[in-house]
Design brief:
Pathway: Steroid metabolism; cholesterol metabolism. Belongs to the ferredoxin--NADP reductase type 1 family. FAD binds at residues 50, 71, 79, 115, 400, 407-409. Residues 41-197 form the FAD/NAD(P)-binding domain. The protein has 494 residues and is of the alpha/beta class. It has two domains: 41-138 and 366-456, 3-Layer(aba) Sandwich (Rossmann fold); 140-364, FAD/NAD(P)-binding domain. The chain is 34% helix and 18% strand. It has a six-stranded parallel β-sheet with strand order 8-16-9-10-12-11. A five-stranded parallel β-sheet has the order 5-4-3-6-20, with helices on both faces. Strands 13-14-15 form a three-stranded antiparallel β-sheet, with no helix packed on it. Helix 2 (49-61) crosses helix 15 (409-429). The longest helix is centred in the last third of the chain and has 21 residues, at 409-429. The radius of gyration is 25 Å and the shape is globular. Bound molecules: flavin-adenine dinucleotide (FAD) and NADP nicotinamide-adenine-dinucleotide phosphate. The site of NADP nicotinamide-adenine-dinucleotide phosphate (NAP) has 24 residues, from helix 7.
Amino acid sequence: MGAHKLLFSELKLWTSGGGGWIARLHKGGCGKASLSSCSPKVCIVGSGPAGFYTAQHLIKARQDVEVDIYERLPVPFGLVRFGVAPDHPEVKNVINTFTQTAKHSRCSFYGNVNVGKNVSITELQQAYHAVVLSYGAEGNRSMGVPGEDLAGVYSAKDFVGWYNGLPSCRELSPDLSCETAVILGQGNVALDVARILLSPIDILKKTDITQPTLEALAESQVRRVLIVGRRGPIQIACTIKELREMVNLPDTRPDMVAADFDGVKEALKDLPRPRKRLTELMLKTALEVPGEKEQERRSKASRTWGFRFFRSPVEVLAEPGHSRIAGIRLAINKLEGSGDGAQAVLTGEVEDVPCGLVVSSIGYKSLPIDPSVPFDSRKAIVPNTMGRVKQAAGLYCSGWLKTGPTGVIATTMNNSFDTARSILEDMDSGTLDMSAAKPGSQSISALLEKRGVEPVTFSDWEKIDNVEMKRGESRGKPREKLLTVEEMLHVAWT
Ligand code: FAD
Ligand code: NAP
């Protein structure tokens, strides 16, 4: 049964036009006499790590707060489901904590609700004392170069969405018939994409990677992956664990350009420890003659990967007379300044690299979802101070929408706890107006029903979860994801 059906069975009605309760109030709720003792109602938009960690902190800190989480998709967990690489199952253990939060008696999940389309932020603000925007970064930075739209060029966001079963990326079907792939950007997402392109199928088939992706990768002709960065080895954005995975990836060998590392050894001593260890591993991989065993492993490898530094994309090149890519033109850069802050400056020289696949992995980007919410288009974030949206009382933000699209789950957790603390402070200080009772999900459910939108509850999600795990079991995988919203809704409601 859909969430709103449950709610209606309790006969709680709210009229947005009439501005108040119009029917009898439910058992345990606030009557007019007890308005001041009403429990604070908070709604969260987005059920990724930011949404769940914000909810968790609020529920733990106050015994009276009620939290509703609205999610666009019928399934929860955001990038933990649709971003984290399938061969990193341990990272997804955070889902256990999120599930505990979702099942808490003072937390409700409403999936299949697209905030900004099905319900506006203003409507949410009328229904709740506080609204927290935690809807992540669903766009991507574009390269802004000619040829970017040619067939064979993909954003990492779409490529990752494809292998992770994001419904909107189901039909991407990237063409993997070429030998060389170029990935632009050298962050952890770039390394995820490189690893998925080059991993032996026997490894991937034990993960929750989607079946169509597995079949496409089994046929893939990609043998060489170049991971291109605009700055140098000392500025690389990936972390050591992910680099180590590349170095040890079975059936692959590294292929670097020694000259890219000129002067790097000398700079080691001044680097902070994590950066120093990362750079040492790169130097070892690029320049040292490996031991006998490693030499043998490398000589047998059928695939190669390598970093290319000091290169910025200037044009994606087309095959003559075709709309398919033939290669990429890279500007050769030099660095001005040193350390993290060093800037890539064009030298005027360019280099053409033949390739049949380009994945642009230069960052995700948050998008505005409702014109009533302040949005900083330059930084692509909701402008905020400690999670309080500027010039918008009662409105908060957390996660990537608050900080921009960087940071691992632990970083997102901390910034979401900070936002929750701001909300709690505002509740305690009276800055957040809680003088009037708010209807919460009851009014929103009524609106959604009027608009023909049926939310997916957390127990509906658990049905989807069960079906996916069962399908996976028969293939020796942890899960086989449902790939369309229609299929998810069908399972949820039958
Ligand atoms: P998200 O996780 O994106 O959650 C946002 C949620 O909001 C989504 O569920 C989305 O569907 C929903 N939403 C969007 N629009 C609406 C709307 N209009 N209405 C309602 N809901 C909406 N970190 C690690 O620690 N380890 C890793 O291995 C790791 N791998 C990663 C791999 C990739 C490819 C990426 C991109 C990131 C990875 N991260 C990893 C980082 C981690 O995923 C982020 O720190 C974290 O997911 C950010 O959380 P968030 O809640 O802000 O955004
Ligand atoms: P990222 O770490 O910010 O890396 C972005 C890369 O794109 C950098 O190399 C950056 O180079 C480059 N870039 C940005 N703009 C560019 C431009 N205009 N032209 C050329 N290059 C450009 O972002 P990400 O890889 O998308 O990862 C996002 C976050 O998720 C990170 O915090 C990451 O650690 C996390 N994540 C973690 C894991 C994991 O833990 N396993 C996996 C995936 C993602 P510059 O440095 O020169 O700007």
